[in-house]
Amino acid sequence: MAVKPTRSMSEHTFQNHVIDGFEQQGYTYVPQSQMDQNFNRETAIDEQTLKEFLIDTQPKEVAKVERQYGGNWSQAVLKRIQQVIADKGLLWALRNQIEMAPGAKFKLLYFKPKNDLNQTAVEHYHANRFQVTEEFHYGTMKDDLNNRIDVVLLVNGFPLVTIELKNHQTGQTVNNAIRQYMTDRNPKEQVFQPDLRSLVHFAVDADDVFMTTWLKGKETKFVPSNQGNGKAGGGNPPAEPGKFGTSYLWEEVLTPDSLLDIVERFVQITYHEKDKNGKKITRKVRSAMKAVIFPRYHQLRAVRRLLKATQEQGPGHNYLIQHSAGSGKSYSIGWLAYHLASLTQSDGSSFFNSVIVLVDRVVLDEQLQGTIMNMPHPRGMVAIAKDSAGLRDAINSGARIIISTLQKFPYIYNQTDTAGRTFAIIIDEAHSSQSGEAHRKTKQALGDHTGLNTDDADELDSDAYDWDDSGLDEDADDAAMRVRDELNAQGVQSNLSFYAFTATPKPSTLETFGTANPSTGRPEAFDLYSMKQAIEEGFILNVLTNYTTFQTYFHLVKKSEENPKRKAGRTKKEIMDFVKLDPSNVSQISEIIVDHFHDHVMPLLHGDGKGMVVTSSRKAAVEYFRYMKRLAARAEYAGVKPVVAFSGKLDLDGEEVTEGTLNGFNSSEIAKRFDTSEFNLMIAANKFQTGFDQPKLCAMYVDKKLTGVAAVQTLSRLNRTCPGKQAPIVLDFANKPETIQAAFEPYYMQTDLDRVTDPSVIYDMKTALSEFQIYDDAEVSALCRVWLGKPDESTMPEVLRLLGPAKEQYSELDQERQDEFRKRVSKFLRTYSYITQLIRLEDEELFNLDTYLAFLNRELAPKYAPEEPIDNLIAVTQLRIENKGHADITLTGGEPVKNNAGSVGVGPTTDDEDYLSKIIDYLNDLFDADFGDPARKYFEGLMTVLQKDAKLRTQAKNNSRADFRTPFDSAFLKALFESQAENTDLFSKLSGSQEALRHVQEFLFDEFYTREQREEREE
Length: 1019
Fold this sequence. Notes:
Radius of gyration: 33 Å
Protein name: Type I restriction endonuclease subunit R
GO molecular function: ATP binding; DNA binding; type I site-specific deoxyribonuclease activity
Structural class: alpha/beta
Keywords: Endonuclease, Hydrolase, Nuclease
Strand order of the largest sheet: 1-6-7-8-9-10-11
Organism: Bifidobacterium reuteri
Number of helices: 39
């Protein structure tokens, strides 16, 4: 039905375009009049088309039932089909055979074969009947007899997809189509009942697509199925010439090939675990159905793009999938695993021998595990490795899909047989650990290390691994083999493809798994479903909408006449921890939280609203819990039910406490009990701060410093949607709004990297270390010969003996040089591990140095002298907490994440000492605002001017404190004169007093350098 040229902008004109689009993709157009004749409303099947399909594709089976039932055979088959669908559901019937007496087995659908090797299978697939019709009559009930659906897609007589269309030009949008489904479509009609006939319903206009799989009247939930605008968030990209913004629906998503692939390997039915009486359900039948899962556009796009790239590029490539919370990541991973497991070469052989799904948690993700296990698969296809031995055996036996945790590989990396085999590794929640030891051991366990790379095939027999030491000649070959295996495990492995999923990629994750952008050369995600899109589409909530901050002001006094000299950095942290636990602080914050929770959060969700208190330490969690429990006992706070969560044991005033002793039940029950009405306010220390999925969590009370990814992951506990849940609430007692905004910005849209790591920096680090003259090449080689050779009882003492000369040289350095050397060693080890995940460094000497320094580093751990507890020296007075009001945190997504890897410089070589009285004065000035707001703003302005100097920031990151002094002093004086107009009185006082000027200059120097060095260290 070709669209005729017309000037009409009516809905019917749009409908004609849609029908024509489906025809162009391979559907046969069936006019309304013909469909009315063929479609039986009572069975909700185009019986004539189904009958023709069965006769055409399965004549032998038709002959069997014809001999048994005669001329009524088709009615008998239809009756049996309806019985099976009523029990097992339409999806099961389409994927399996319909068996009936006398031994006939019918297929209702032929899926596309993986290759063209079986000609019969190809012919059967092409025999499927794909039909599109319009103004579809479906009603069997009195009020529905004349109702019509705009467009319906049928396959072999079964209506699988319904579509309601609207046109802006007639004053209607996709929202009108949604309302039509909710108010004018009776869910009791067979054609609408989930998994009985139609699998999905689309509401469509020229700009947007929404879908649902279950019509429930006014309770029906439609979700967007738009393409998204990449970094720009939700919706669809601008339409191409001559097309609509939603043309992708019929040109891509619902083409015959695509629709059948969705039916075969995407659509999933979930079932209730228990019936209405609480009895466990053992059979997966339609009556126990919980939901029908149909893929959203980005899920289809990601899986199919990954498959296409894998087929084109072959094994040995990495892919980063940046999908926000709310993206349906568990389903995306499950679908990808099954598609990769069934991917074949042109000769029919498997593309990958095994697909391994890894989670970065000690306990397997139950949701992900359940998602994969619920997908249709033959017995034995999926192996769940609950321990290291199980993982080893699953790998060695060639299990098709293996589910395990990343932490198991260090135990089995040398026990696997992977020669000549290929693996696809899907990583759930890819974090920095995937660029460290566990990731390296994963590659060692699965990489095909049967020999060196092709270009290096002859090296093992050359002098490259001749240790040239007469005392250990017999071990030289073993050591050489081990070095070879270690070097071969570096960089990208030719037989391994990694597919890493995360919502918050760190720089290391981007560089390890990202795809280089051709225009910038910087790595980025292969596929993106952004936080911005997830928020705009309503799959998650914006946790920064209702954000209120509080400022704590306090004064400290000395309790002792002593004025001991202490490490400033550590002492400041001790003082802040001391203040956090001061009874006046605990009581004031607890009262604010409980009062707010009782009045504003507990009534939410019909009285089921829940909150979480994020504390700075386990001890703080216990103190808050005890005080809040006392508050909850008061009549005015009735209904507040606190529970505490932290790991391990804690000794408080001689009493050993655990979360179990405080709560009165086992730790393993906390999450489950918190989901009930038994508890509604969780006080947590680290535990449940990430990876905790509780949709009823409506508020968070933060009393812990949060930065970077940790801030995003912590606050994102609030973003889960729940019926009736509005924008979540945050009360923050520890962070500034600009800190939280800076943490979220890189992850709001696409996460970009500000720069890439230069692998050659490792050689600059090597040079910087050698200048200390702590060790020499001979000592490094000697230790590596011992450690990498055959181990015996002398290995450990010999390694320690060989570290002796370096330890002696180290001891002769002054304290500042010792600190710098130790930090440079640690940075070298981190950088070497990081870079060798990105590329293979074909450098045996560098590998030996890394091995040597790993041992030396453990011997150089700083030994701090015990200091008197801070609480014996100071006391808190005049503590008050001030509500700073609502914070306006608006995200733009314009900030790239900072890559701090690969710089040569190290942080401050010493923790500057100061007298305790000066430390207290500093904190009193900072928190009690003694200088007054005008002066504070002036100093902040000076810091802002300095922070804008990109060259100065780079110098701070890459130089020692001493080397940074000269460029800072010059920049400070320049900034001081540029800012004099901001506060002429203060400028006059500073310029007239050398002592005052020096104090401000030192303060800003310390603050600036410490801040830049902290940024440089964070990943």
